[in-house]
Fold this sequence. Notes:
Helices cover 74% and strands 0% of the residues. By secondary structure, the chain is an all-alpha fold. The protein has one domain (15-114): lambda repressor-like DNA-binding domains (434 Repressor (Amino-terminal Domain), Orthogonal Bundle), CATH 1.10.260.
Amino acid sequence: MSKYDRSMSGNKNQIKSELGQYLRDVRKERNETLHQVSQGTDIDSPMLSKIERGERLPTSEQIKKIAKHFKVPENILRSKLTAEKILREYGANEVTLDAISIVKEEIVKYVKLKK
């Protein structure tokens, strides 16, 4: 197995859900139960629990509902969701980090062109 192959295998299964932990922290700061959040978002409690534990990722529609309920900017949740998708798909390794650097450079160029 080459160094590249080992780095690509990464620690996909060892990545903790930052989005899930963030949502749990916000919920606890607001002293809300999963049932209360469920009522406010129309997302069932077992699904919310899975999202908090990192077992499931929320859909785009669920992100909107959660952001509205918690009164947090939707873009913060979407950014955390995107980061988590990248880590789940590609793992936490040097190759992923290099790829993210390339994406960042391209986005900076795109933003400059848009101005």
